[in-house]
Amino acid sequence: MKTFTRTFALLLGLVLLVGCTTKMSSKDVAPSSVHHLQRGQRFYVVMPLDGKYKEKTYAGSGRQVSQYFKQALSSYASDVVIGQVNPDDRTTIFAEAAKVNAKYALVPNINHWEPRAAAWSGMAPESNITYEVYDVESGKVLMYKVIVVKGRTMTFKSQHIDELSRIAIQNSCSELF
C-alpha cells in the first residue's frame, strides 16, 4: 500500500509539474544571413491574415499580432508602420515599405491560433507564428523565425493565447538586435 501511495503521489506531482508550465520558444527556421539588425531603423510590419484553429477563424487575431510586433519593435526602431497588404505579395510589400522609407519589412504568418479555457477544459491554448525579416532595398530574407507558445494544461486561472503570444513576440524581437 505504501508503494502504491508513493507511486501515485509521485505521478500526480509529475503531472502537475508538467501540466502547470507555459512553454514559449523562438527559433530560426533557416540560417540567418545576419546575426543582428540595426537599431534606430524604420520597420514595415505586414498585418497577417487572422489565425485559425481547424475551421474556425479568430477575427482580429491578425491585427493583434501586428500590434504586438509594433509594440515589441518600437523599443529598437525609429518607427514601426503597419501595412495592410497581401502577405504573399512580396513586390507590393517592398514597394509599400519603400514608400515609408523602411529599412526592414517584417512579414508574420499565424500558422496556428488556438484559444482554450484550460482552467475548465484541461486543454492548453496554443499558437504558432512564423515571421520573416527582409531588407527592403535588396529584397533579401535576413531572418526567418518561428514562435511557438503552449499554455498550461493544469491551471486554476485561465491563460489567454493573445497575452501569451504578446510576451513570446516581445521576447523573440528582443533577440533580433
Task: Describe the 3D structure.
The chain is α/β, with parallel strands linked by helices and 177 residues long. It has one domain: Rossmann fold, CATH 3.40.50. It has helices at 2-19, 61-73, 90-99, 118-121, 161-174, and strands at residues 23-28, 42-46, 52-53, 56-57, 79-83, 104-114, 126-135, 141-150. The strands form 2 sheets. Strands 1-8-7-6-2-5 form a 6-stranded mixed beta sheet, with helices on both faces. The chain has a two-stranded antiparallel sheet with strand order 3-4. A hairpin with a 5-residue loop joins strand 7 and strand 8. Helix 2 packs parallel to helix 5 (161-174). The termini are far apart. The relative contact order is 0.22. The model is unreliable at 8-19 (pLDDT under 50).
Brief digest:
With 177 residues, the chain is an alpha/beta fold. The chain contains 5 helices and 8 strands; from the N terminus they run αββββαβαβαββα. The chain has one domain (23-174): Rossmann fold (3-Layer(aba) Sandwich).
